Structures are given as structure tokens and as C-alpha cells.
């Protein structure tokens, strides 16, 4: 392409280090779409004749169907997807192909293609998260009143409902979706027509190409447009946050599926066996989701460091922007799908969960609260009295509500019969009806709101089994 200036071809090392076609061929659909928008505009503006514009558009369609049928050929001499497509176009339609690159550079071309690709990735992540939220909401509705221990420090703290616990993740993914939507809104400006860095002397209609490619407007500074990769970083930041949430959810399932917990039976379809221990059913999918989070954060780090300290405008370092984004998107898509399946198809062992809540003195706070409310005891003192009751129950190996009234009264005479109503795990969760609290009715309200937001059928369909 630059034979006019260079006497010798590139060394083998130069060819290899320079070639991005092995990975940027993933941009072929975006590259064709952007070229078609560009050439249509060149024709409209009379910058190329309408006959030439039509021939180029037809040629691009032909190239696209070849790529569709047999993949994008990888010739390192052609460096990247842009030159690969242009060179094939020239083979197909002859020298008129050379008019396509009028008023454009690979710098604005790649910035445009990549934005289009990232925009699709955002849309896919959003759709995947909506499905995951749907699964969470569905299961939360089923288990609005299923009792489990709530933990702090992974120590039994207070009883909560499984529905409440699952809806906590609904909230995380709601925020993630808003981050993605925010990134999408911010990135939706079209670099095409910024040319190499300074803009162009050709009378381009940048609004037309922006509109044709679904962008809100053309970018306002050509130097910024060709050197900006904020849109990719915004996406990776949002992706890293999603991955963090997925990893936490995966970790819950891993813990819950362990034998000492036994809170959940994972779907066979998302588990593996052991080659040596026949009894094993391993939560590999969840572990890989947890592992992939590390890789996705690594992708964010990679592009962050690539961009650090680059002067304006384009530098070739920026060619390295694509692998981390492609990798993160594919890991994220798999992770979201795996966790959606896990949430939708796991069998929750609600009896085990309830038992664990009952065994862990999870209603100790309810005893203390009762003393405050009914016997007008200051909370700190009530806390102390309750500690003695837990100690006694522990020494007898029974739950708090299995202690006899006279045993409790021996600890503090102000304890009355009414306390037992507060000590069951059901009474405990039912009492926490503050907005956003764990009470089944409150969880049902949040589930109903969420179903509405997600456009789901308002009444959950009947579902057999756990
Ligand atoms: N393959 C290049 C990239 O992805 C395209 C831009 C090349 N521009 C240039 N001036 N060499 O960054």
C-alpha cells in the first residue's frame, strides 16, 4: 500500500508483529457496514460518481458474502481487516475500489468499527443480564418465604429469606445494566470522517454516515475521535463490575453446594464429576465464572495500561486495544449464561436452609429486640441478657425457643411468655418488614416491582418441585 515511499518490503518480524488480522477479522461485519455507509455518502455528496458508489457497494456485499461463507482470509501482508477487505474489493471490482478510501483513514475507520463492535457487545451483555435478572426474580418469587441463615463474616447472623438473598443480586445486576446503558449512551458518536487525525478537505456529510450507522451524532474533535478508546474502557469497566458480581454469586453457589452446607443441588448440566472419586459432583461452571472474573479484570488492566501516556493522536499501541475487549466479551457472555442456568435450574434444599437458620441462634437479635420493646430494657443490657440465653442454649445443645420459660426467667425475670412468639425464625423474618427488608411480604412486593420492570408476566407461573 505504501510501495511509493518504501524501497524494501517488511522483515518477517515486522510482518508478524504488525499483523492484526488474526484478531481484528472479528470486526468484518462492522468494517463492511461502515464502508457501505461511507461510500453511500460519498455518492450522495458527488465526491464519487453514483455509478462508482454503486459498484463499490455491490462489491462490498460480495466480499461480505464470501466472509460469511468461508471466513476472512488471513494474509499478514494485508495487516488488518481494513486492508484485507479493500484488497479483496479491488480484486473483485478493479481500480474503482480505490475510491472507497476517499476522505477517510484507517484511523477513523478502526475507531468507528470498534465502536460499533463494542456497542453490540454492550447490547448483548444487557440482554444477558436481563435474562439473568428474570431467573433471579422467578426463583425469588418461589422462595419469598423460604428461610435460610443470613450471614455476616460467613457466620450465622439473622434469618433471612432465600428470595431476599436472590433479590440482592437482582439489585447488583440492575446497577450493572445502568452502567452499561450509560456507557452506550456516552459512546454513541461517530468518528468516521475524522480521517487520519485532522479531518478532511472533502465535503463529507458526517451527519449522514453517523445516522446510517445508528450513532446519535458525529464526534466533535477529530484528534480525540481517532485516539479515544474511552468507550472500550467504559465497557471493560462495566464488564469488570458485572464479573465481580457474577463471581460473588458463583461463590455463594459453590459454598451452598458443599456437603456441610447442602443448601443447593446444582444442575447436572452445569457440573462435572471426578475421574477418581465417584461420589463427587463438582461446581466447575461456578468456579470458572469465579476464575473468569480475574481474567476480565485483567483485560481492563491491559487496555488501561495500553492507553496510559499515549500522546495524541493515533499510535500503533492502540491496535492492542482489541484482544482484551474481545476476550472480556466472550468470557462475560459465557459467565452470564452459566449463572443464568445455575439460578434457573438449581434445586434449593429449603429444609436444610431452615435447619441451619434454626441451629445458628439466628434469632438472638429478636430476643434482644423483644426485651427492648416489651420490657423497656436498654438495648446494650438486652444484648447482655440475650448472650447469657444463647450460652445456656448452646450448653444444652438446643435452639433458643426450646429453652423453658423458667430457664429464661432465671437469666432475667422480666422475660415473659410472649417472647416465644418472637423467637421462631418465621416470626423473625416476618417482623423485618421495613422497606427492603427480608419479610416475605416485602420480598413479594420487590419481586412484583421487578417483574414489572423486566416486563415479565405479573403472576409467576406455577412450578413443581424445588
Ligand atoms: N489495524 C490498525 C489498528 O487496529 C488500524 C489503524 C492503522 N492505522 C495506522 N495509521 N497504521 O489500530
Would you give an account of this structure?
The structure is a single chain. With 466 residues, this protein is mostly helical. The protein has helices at 12-18, 21-24, 28-44, 50-70, 81-93, 106-142, 162-187, 206-212, 222-227, 230-257, 284-307, 322-345, 350-359, 364-375, 379-396, 405-411, 419-423, 425-431, 440-453; strands at 147-152, 155-161, 189-190, 217-218, 264-265, 347-348. Helix 3 packs across helix 6 (106-142), helix 3 (28-44) packs across helix 8 (206-212) and helix 11 runs antiparallel to helix 12 (322-345). The radius of gyration is 30 Å and the shape is elongated. It binds arginine (ARG). The site of arginine has 10 residues, from helix 6.
Summarize the structure.
The chain has helices at 12-18, 21-24, 28-44, 50-70, 81-93, 106-142, 162-187, 206-212, 222-227, 230-257, 284-307, 322-345, 350-359, 364-375, 379-396, 405-411, 419-423, 425-431, 440-453; strands spanning 147-152, 155-161, 189-190, 217-218, 264-265, 347-348.
Amino acid at each position: 500500500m505504501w510501495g511509493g515511499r518504501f524501497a524494501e518490503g517488511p522483515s518477517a518480524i515486522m510482518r508478524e508483529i504488525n499483523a492484526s488480522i488474526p484478531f481484528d477479522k472479528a470486526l468484518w461485519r462492522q468494517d463492511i457496514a461502515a464502508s457501505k455507509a461511507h461510500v453511500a455518502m460519498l455518492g450522495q455528496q458527488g465526491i464519487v460518481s453514483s455509478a462508482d458508489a454503486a459498484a463499490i457497494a455491490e462489491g462490498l456485499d460480495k466480499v461480505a458474502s464470501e466472509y460469511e461463507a468461508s471466513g476472512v482470509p488471513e494474509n499478514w501482508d494485508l495487516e488488518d481487516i481494513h486492508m484485507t477487505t479493500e484488497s479483496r474489493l479491488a480484486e473483485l471490482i478493479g481500480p474503482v475500489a480505490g475510491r472507497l478510501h476517499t476522505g477517510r483513514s484507517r484511523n477513523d475507520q478502526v475507531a468507528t468499527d470498534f465502536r460499533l463492535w463494542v456497542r453490540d457487545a454492550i447490547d448483548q451483555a444487557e440482554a444477558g443480564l436481563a435474562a439473568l435478572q428474570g431467573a433471579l426474580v422467578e426463583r425469588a418469587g418461589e422462595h419469598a418465604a423460604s428461610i435460610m441463615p443470613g450471614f455476616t463474616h460467613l457466620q450465622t447472623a439473622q434469618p433471612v429469606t432465600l428470595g431476599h438473598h436472590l433479590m440482592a443480586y437482582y439489585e447488583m445486576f440492575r446497577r450493572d445494566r445502568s452502567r452499561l446503558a450509560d456507557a452506550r449512551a456516552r459512546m454513541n458518536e461517530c468518528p468516521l470522517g475524522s480521517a487520519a487525525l485532522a479531518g478532511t478537505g472533502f465535503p463529507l456529510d458526517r451527519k449522514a454516515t453517523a445516522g446510517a450507522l445508528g450513532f446519535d451524532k458525529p464526534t466533535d474533535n477529530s484528534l480525540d475521535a481517532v485516539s479515544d478508546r474511552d468507550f472500550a474502557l467504559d465497557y471493560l469497566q462495566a464488564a469488570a463490575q458485572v464479573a465481580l458480581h457474577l463471581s460473588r454469586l458463583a461463590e455463594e453457589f459453590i459454598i451452598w453446594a458443599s456437603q456441610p452446607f447442602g443448601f443447593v443441588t446444582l444442575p447436572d448440566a452445569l457440573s462435572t464429576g471426578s475421574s477418581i472419586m465417584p461420589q463427587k459432583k463438582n461446581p466447575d461452571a461456578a468456579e470458572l465464572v469465579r476464575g473468569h472474573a480475574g481474567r476480565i479484570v485483567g483485560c481492563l488492566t491491559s487496555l488501561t495500561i495500553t492507553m496510559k501516556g499515549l500522546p495524541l493522536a493515533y499510535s500503533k499501541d492502540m491496535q492492542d486495544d482489541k484482544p482484551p475487549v474481545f476476550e472480556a466479551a466472550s468470557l462475560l457472555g459465557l459467565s452470564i449464561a452459566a449463572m443464568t442456568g445455575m439460578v434457573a435450574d438449581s434445586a434449593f434444599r429449603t429444609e436444610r436452609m431452615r435447619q441451619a437458620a434454626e441451629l445458628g441462634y439466628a434469632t438472638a437479635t429478636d430476643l434482644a429486640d423483644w426485651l427492648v420493646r416489651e420490657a423497656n430494657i436498654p438495648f446494650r443490657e438486652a444484648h447482655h441478657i440475650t448472650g447469657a440465653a444463647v450460652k445456656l442454649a448452646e450448653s444444652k445443645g438446643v435452639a433458643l425457643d426450646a429453652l423453658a420459660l423458667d430457664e429464661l426467667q432465671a437469666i432475667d425475670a422480666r422475660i415473659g411468655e410472649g417472647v416465644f412468639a418472637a423467637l421462631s425464625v418465621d416470626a423473625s423474618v416476618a417482623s423485618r418488614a421495613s422497606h427492603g427488608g427480608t419479610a416475605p411480604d416485602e420480598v413479594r412486593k420487590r419481586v412484583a416491582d421487578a417483574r414489572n420492570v423486566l416486563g415479565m408476566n405479573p403472576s409467576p407461573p406455577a412450578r413443581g418441585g424445588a
